[in-house]
Records
---
Amino acid sequence: MSIDDLKLWFLQLDQLLEQQQAYWRLQPMQQNDLPFADHSLNELLLSFSLEQCDAIDQSPALQQQYFAGFFPLLFAALPKLQHFAPQGLELPFWLSTDIGGRKWQQISLFAEAVGKPGSKVLEWCAGKGHLGKVLCFAYQNKVTSLEWQAELCQQGQLSANKLNLDQFFIEHNVLEAQSQPLLASVDQLVALHACGDLHRVALTAGVAARCPELHLLPCCYHLQQDECYQPLSEQALASRLRLSRAELKLAVQGQNTAGERVRRLRHTEVLWRRAYQLWLSEQSGSTLYRALPSTAKHWFSGAFADFASWAAAQHQLEWPAGQDGHRYLVQAAQLLLLQRRIELVQHLFRRPLELWLVLDRALYLAEQGYQVQLQQLCQASVTPRNLLLSAYSYTDEQSSSVRVTGAVPR
């Protein structure tokens, strides 16, 4: 993948996001009507039920079917990325103990995509080190797993010792302590779903240590200390886009891996919070949004009045006894449908924005002399955050040889 390809893709996405920012740089919850000037687009949105909105929002094929005519440049600007073609990494069932099905799929696919026999690997933000265990077992790698939580390090080390794996855990906060010495003698740095600043530091530390290979599946770009996004590459630094932390969150709003119960509870939570805000506005005479803290999901399995009583207490108010809140729930349902219709358009720009961010990272690595590979690791049903960024500090001939990987069967 040449740097010219990366620059072209980035430029196309950059122009698209700038020219059509009216469609994605908005707050759907704050709208009282459809904000778009295209009457045909508005008519289409008004025809969708809440269930249709949810179905379309979770399906790239349906998004293209309904909206390609309105946004032809958007769909044309998306890079045609290579999809990783797994051959099947043979792993024993007991290695996946206590790991969820989708998480296990992500780990095994990531390991197969980057694994290389005999490598010294640094596992970044390792948690319990599940990825490191697979790399140790399948490829006889020597793995150092960095994790800042002592309890997770202890649990991970105990598991590795029981399995007689060459995996060593280090309690290490990558945001506060220097990591370059730990990278000095490794062959690969791997990071599966390291969030925001965590994977940014992985990139810069890996480059500073001239780590031979870096493999990252970035996630949660908005989890950063800075209020505004700080570009990494020269191309992104030259862009006129200035992204806030809230705008970065748009890139990771895909939720199509959630189960039916989780989606239902999420819908109820959004509806009830909006209904409560309507009541709160009546009491205060102000339409300004007043935040509520996160709370346990059990509140959204009972009665709305119980949740509203809890919410009112957070604002030093008292929910009226005997008030079921039906009137507010009806109004909130109408506002929620409007919000979902607006989000249908806004969410068309999730993937372009995420690709813009990942390409910024890819261009940064290319500018530092690395050969870069960007591919889609898996389907969005396994994880929406499925962009695998790999970088190699080899010559062309050497690089082509290390990209052919396979499992070492046990």
---
Amino acid sequence: MRDIRHFIDGAAFDGASGRFADVFDPNTGEVQARVQLATTGEVDRAVQAAQNAFDGWSSTNPQRRARVMFEFKRLVEANMDELAELLSSEHGKVIADSKGDIQRGLEVIEFACGIPHALKGEYTYGAGPGIDVYSMRQPLGVVAGITPFNFPAMIPMWMFGVAIAVGNTFVLKPSERDPSVPVRLAELMLEAGAPNGVLNVVHGDKTAVDAILTHPLVHAVSFVGSSDIAHYVYQTGAANHKRVQAMGGAKNHGIVLPDADMDQVIKDLAGAAYGSAGERCMALPVVVPVGKKTADELRERMVAEIPSMRVGVSTDAGAHYGPVVTAQHRDRIAGWIEKGVQEGAELVVDGRDFSLQGHEKGYFIGPSLFDHVKP
């Protein structure tokens, strides 16, 4: 059994908690690895490594930090196929989606490559009688990110890319469901020239989250996840005098007007509602058509479109989407479908009985469609 270890102070680190979480292959339902779950002490070790690296990294001039980001970008692009396959094997999204996940993260790394200009302060002469005003931009110190399962490359890069480029050092606590890509990104950051301790990865559950939120040397925390946990992260972090951005509960809703280009609507809805098995933060699960005629046409066109959507294993280049991330997630979706039926909505297309030949134990669920849903 492959063990996924922490990455602390520039090297793989074996935790001593004795606690592990299973990492599944969603295509087969089999356990493919286990990830170590950190103790409070192991989180402290990562924070201390980041703190030790801070003075040297923050005093490195912005141009040199930017060169590290340029090289990191090059290395991620050079390893794109490996990273995408690793991501798909743990998350279940198809390879094309995984490459998109990585590329969207790289867009923020590209921004971080231009950080010297963004770090310039301001100076105002004569703001008042005998008063000049100037501002300086300075790093905080050790900062942390707590990231979700659905974008294990993009969201960590969104967080640590800018934080590190401006001179902070970083502790990342990724989702324990698909933790391998964040570790690989930390290895590439080291290879790109970042000193030991600039980017650390600790795996864990609530124990690790609480250790980050209460650690006196962690000055800021960024979080993406469910709304309930976002509230908890914000309240706990703020109570411990940290800057916190906590983003939770994102889903889109759509309105289809009578004059909409229905060909484009169907194309967009198929991707937005069902793409990546609906596990994107900005998925679009609810659509309100304006008027019965629009609603009838939308329903008819979607019913015709759904059979053309191919559900397959994550390595299937022709698949539109793959399995969901865990059996619990699949069962939860099936439970919501059943709840809709019980509450009186019309289940037009039922994807609960979907099974992929040869992968019957995988976490697959077919596209489903409700109509006449009441509040």
---
Amino acid sequence: MIGRDRIQYKSPDQLRLMRQAGLLVGQTLERLREAAVAGTSTGELDQLAERTIRDAVATPSFLGYGHPPFPATVCISVNDEIVHGVPGARRLQDGDVVSIDCGAILQGWHGDSAISLVVGGSQHADPADTELLRVTEESMWRGIAALAVGERLHAVGAAVEDLVLSADHDYGIVEEYVGHGIGTEMHQDPQVPNYRVRDKGVRVRPGLAVAIEPMLTRGSAQTRVLADDWTVVTLDGSRAAHFEHTVAVTEAGLWVLTALDGGEQKLTELGAKFAPLT
């Protein structure tokens, strides 16, 4: 159903279908997390993602998307690359910060999620990178927890920004790329800023599904796009992180469609209502 605000509101049955797409995306990202080791190329990770999605009789959301058409199944962004990195011959090294963004279409419905990790784990991580990832992921969850029926949508960005500003480091919040509605298309109304804005946004209604995806840098939030017309990098060369989940609003609360546990652990920890549709 399309509301007067041009937002596609989903029925409970449609949200259940979106959960299947979301689970596939979450499972694909876990496979990629395990495979993202030193010596592996970003192109090899992309091939693994495509096999995983197609084996589930689903279609990659990103492949062929946009202008120029995106040439891969997942976006893989390394170190100073923020989002939309194009996989290829680059081989990962221990200590690299890697962000992987994945989307899939299953029975006509999209799921979209992103993770960031340090290759080689904590023993190879710069502590500043570890903290960057922690703050970025936590800011995403604070934004998710701010979603509630009857509240204003842009409370999400305010919650993200509040968490980032409370950190010990002065992180850059990337503003050019924001969250979005999702459903039968990957990008739909409404836009969901990752920062505080004057406009409070629409009132949140049951059936809303959005992708919430803060992107933080260790330095300036200024960006530029590389010659491939896709890869977005930090202007000052600082490292960046990106986390994303697709979230549904139900009558009773929230269901994180791309989280393997539906978001139960983090939503409960933050005092938000976890409300999956059974």
